[in-house]
Amino acid sequence: MAVDTDLEDVNQTTVYIPFDDSDDANTNGVPPSLFPERDFHQGCQLRFQTCKAAWGKCLKRMQELIHSLHAPVVESVVEQVKKSYTDELPGLPYPELPVISVTSSSTSSSLFDEISFRLEESTDELFDDLNDHFVTHVFPSDCATITGTMKTIVTGFVSRSPTGGQDMKRKPSASLAAYDIALLEAWYRAVCNARDDRHHRSRLVIVMHDFEQLEPQVVQDMFEICSLHIPCLPLVFILALASPPSPSYIRATYPHSMLALLRVRDCPFPLAEKSLHDILLETFFDPVFEPDIMIGPTTIDFVVEFFTRHTSSLDGLLSILQLAHMKHFEEPLSVLVPAQALGRSKDASRLLLTPDAFPFLDALFAQVHRSALIAPVEHATSWRNATVDLLLSSVETARDTFRMCAKLFRVAFRLVLLVRRFMLVHEHKIVQSDQTMPDLMCLALRGRLGSVYGHLCSIVRNLPAAQLEDFVQEVHDFFENVPEDVKAEEDEVISRVETAYKMFCREENAQEISDLLGNWLSDYFKLRIVALEDVPLWDIWYTGSTPFPSELINPSPRASILAGLIHPQDYVSGEQRNGDDEDDDLPDISILFKGYLESAKMINVYDWFQSFVVFLEGRKRRVEKTRIPDGADGTFRTPSRKKGKHKQVEDEVVGEDAGEDEEEWLVEVQARFIRALQELDYLGFIKHTGRKVDHVMRTVFDSPE
Amino acid sequence: MPQTSSTTMPPTSSKNLKLTPSFDAYFTHASSRTRTSTNVFSQRVVPLSPEEHNAALARASVHACTLQVPFDSSSFKRWARELDEGFNILFYGLGSKRGILNDFAKHVSKLGHVVVVNAFHPSVAMRDMLVSIARVPGVQSTSTSTLTLERVAEHFGNSDSPHLFLIIHSLDRSPKLARAISSLALSPHIHIAASIDRLNAPLLFSASQLAARKGSFFSSDRPTKNVGYSWLWHDLTTLAPYTTELTFADRTSISGASSSRARVDITNPISGPLTETAAMHVLAAVTAKAKKLFSLLAAKQLENADSSDVSEVNSAHNPHDQQHFGLTYDALFTLARDAFIATNDTALRALLGEFRDHGLVVSAAQPGTSGSEVLWIPLRKERLSKLVENLDGNAA
């Protein structure tokens, strides 16, 4: 096959393999099950679809939430752009260049997609004028020099036809240079003429991504050039900043002379952590929204750690949750997540009653058995006539139970938060008031929120009368707003709150009411805030404490390379490991790396080579000791891979052959040394400083414990 | 603190080692004077020619210990699914990952068009990748204009476009390429699987680019303008030797692996380093006069090298540093005339022409003087003297 030879050919820089849609035997991209011992054939495909659906539902919810977070920022940016060049301070000596800085550390960069969409399409219905602006995006990679930056800006606009038609070709010979801002000016005049826009309402908006990564000198020049051409070119800059609004990066980096040219407006984004907490709360702890699977405390912990320590980006949050979904649906039983996952009961039994599906049925049966879904006594007698239908119906029951439990759990958790917030607002002292929202979530999911709500209920018992009324009112309102099915389930606590509410109206003793209310709430929380692991078959709908595959997102390539060098045997499966002395099967690069770790900052290559030679010769001697002489001719051969049973004294045939052989051996060692050295170099372990002849410098100073 | 050598340590079960902070180790090393011997590798060890090197490695492959990490190709489907879910994959870990990734490329060619990029190749350029992508039917518009990254991103942003899989070997060798693909990586129909080898390769990517995701929050039908990678990281430790990746390294120099890129840029990219055999072939084909001229130049160069500071002789990391020992054109002309090799300028230039064409003699303007040209043979001292011996032997 030609492709094979091309792929192996190192002289090719790129190889193209055409789309081969001829055979579709292996094309359905469903990976094999991780747990074949309890899976069935169609399971993977079904789980794959279920996963997509579950994640899609979760993603949609979070996108809505993020979108609503973006909305006010987008609104204010668009407003600022519209107001630029019209609403200016009177009496300025020269026009100022409008600059809008958006602190976008927490959000995803799609915020700017949204802004540019709004700016390019925005129509002001009231005045009936089409106000579409032009937006171009500038990335740090385009901006190494001022020429490059100006070229990016100018071509970003000019590549669009002024009349809105098809791209037109400009003759390079008849046109201004692509970096010349006069070209942009000419283009803008043409646009205004074509649109009959005498007031020059369209703005030229430039979004500068990752502003901190741009070279300040280049940016300074660019701003100076641009400010010479306003207001006849209505340029507006939007800077995407990752650093917090104060201390301001722009003011700290650029000189006053440049800042005087700009009119900087800030559009801060809400605090990163708060948005994260809100999104988690509204997605997984909302009384109304029901995610298909519930995430466990370990995932929440990882999300928070990643967000606070690494990148506070909502994109990262989405990726983590998507991975959590993908991981959860590796489990064969997760195929049962949605109701009637396997189709109607008839289809389901047909699907599951194939020999192929027996392991899956077995596992399912064991699970159902272990849970208390079927009473043990009854089970002992009736398992013989248990049918697939029966099994599936008990799964259905478990699903309803879990769903309801999770829902009631969420409602109760929200009530805890409400009570907590009330107490904080009214300045009651709360132990551990520094616990964040995710902390509380994790505690609740683990069923360890007892101390928190116990404490809150004790405050409720001691509430002064004035606050108690507000409190009862709030709790009452809270239960007014829960969904109907929750109301039906929680009639007991609701009626109790109702009673408390009525008692107030009858102006009974406040202390009595607060005592009662505290106890009732405490009972209620105790009943509802329990670990979801206690619900039968919980592991189908709940990720629980399964560890999050964090190395997919936050890997440690360095540790992996070092581990590969120091303990390569750990990567090899057991069969290939032979040896009491583990040094005997170290590859060359690991031998060399040993010397590297033992040496000082600078390494003399010759010394390194010598140690390598000594090491290899030691190994060679050890191998030779256990070697069988080679038959009758008895000639000396390079150490063979055969390991002998008899110990044999080195044979005395050390003639010219041996001398030649010795030389060959040295050449070989040298070649191996150079290869290993260059491999270490390739991996970045060596720096050639040139300070000392044939010395190299270490770049890694980690030392294994 | 008792010193425990790593040989006596029990084999650790965990793959991720616990390491002492490297800054402590760094300061310990930096505070003490480095004691190394005064031996110079390049003086004491004669470098091997590529043929010797390859032959030696072929012999070594029988008893040098190479470990093989078991690999199950069922991972391909899992990776393909991760790509399908909107992530790109980055493979790290010790060992050449080229073989596995090439197999993966063949696997995904059933799902879409594939372009494999050998980023470790010294002369790889963005243009090469675009030329390969242009072979996907429909990407190249009817006009003859060259394909740009924007056009590619736009084409594969359409929901009805085919899928494109980019497999990139050793992405970290070409930061330019890494930057370029950041504008393709978030396109919904472009999927990237790349490998990195260098220890500090993750520094190539900024935090915001790492976290970026495919698909916009706000509307799925409009292509996003964002750049980023959306990597999922996979540890693919193969422990395989980097034979292919180091094809372009100079095996005769200890810094051959790191200077390979720079070297190829200055010399003729086709020829690579001059070898003894190549020189012998050229010398066998030229006239006796030309041979004499060559040995004259070689003798002078060796003489210069001997007379100069010993330590400097082979500190040269690449053959071009032999320039110090070269001869100016005028000096060579005088010598040649005295030896009756060439009596006038034209004749000398004609003789030199053949050598220059084959890279046997290199010339450059001498630094410091204006206009005077310096000529030298880009061979290291030992090789050159061996070559001269051979030449003289044949002549005799």
Count of separate DSSP helical elements of chain B: 16
Question: What's the number of extended β-strand segments of chain A?
Answer: 12
Oligomer: heterodimer
Number of helices of chain A: 25
Mean pLDDT across the residues of chain B is: 78
Question: Biggest sheet of chain A, open or closed, and with what strands and sense?
Answer: 5 strands, parallel
H-E string of chain B: EHHHHEHEHHEHEHEHHHHEHHEEH
Helix percent of chain A reads 40-55%
Largest inter-chain contact set: A-B, 133 and 137 residues
The description of the largest β-sheet of chain B is: 5 strands, parallel
Strand content bin of chain B: 5-15%
Biggest sheet strand order of chain A reads: 5-6-7-2-8
- Enumerate the strands of the largest sheet of chain B in spatial order, edge to edge or round the barrel: 3-4-5-2-6
Which outline of chain A best applies? globular
Mean pLDDT of chain A: 81
Overall structural class of chain A, as computed from helix and strand content, comes to alpha/beta
Q: How many strands of chain B?
A: 9
Strand content of chain A: 5-15%
Q: Roughly how many Å is the radius of gyration of chain A? A: 36 Å
CA-to-CA gap between the ends of chain B?
A: 67 Å
InterPro entries (chain B): ORC2, RecA-like_ORC2, WHD_ORC2
Function (chain B): Component of the origin recognition complex (ORC) that binds origins of replication. DNA-binding is ATP-dependent. ORC is required to assemble the pre-replication complex necessary to initiate DNA replication.
GO cellular component, one term (chain B): nuclear origin of replication recognition complex
Subunit structure (chain B): Component of the origin recognition complex (ORC).
